[in-house]
Amino acid sequence: MIYQNLSLEEARKLKVREILKDFVKDLDENLKYFCKLVRQDLRNERDHVIAITGYPGLGKSQLATLVSILIDYDYTFGKNVCFIPTSTEIEHQYLNLPMYSVLHIDEASRGIHKHKWHDKMQQKLNELYDTDREGHFLCTLLLMPRFQNFGENFRNFRIKYWININDRGIAVVYKRDEDKDTRDPWHLDENYKLKQKRWKNKKVYDRGIPEIVRVEQQTLNYWFYFTVPEIPKDIWEIYQELKRESRILAKGKESELELESYKERLDREKMERWVKIAELKSKGNSHAEIGAVLGCSAETIRRNLRAMEAWEKVKGKTIQPTNPLHKEGSIIFNHNKNNKFKKINVEFNKEQNVE
Question: Are the C-beta atoms of residues 164 and 53 closer than 8 Å to each other?
Answer without folding.
Answer: yes
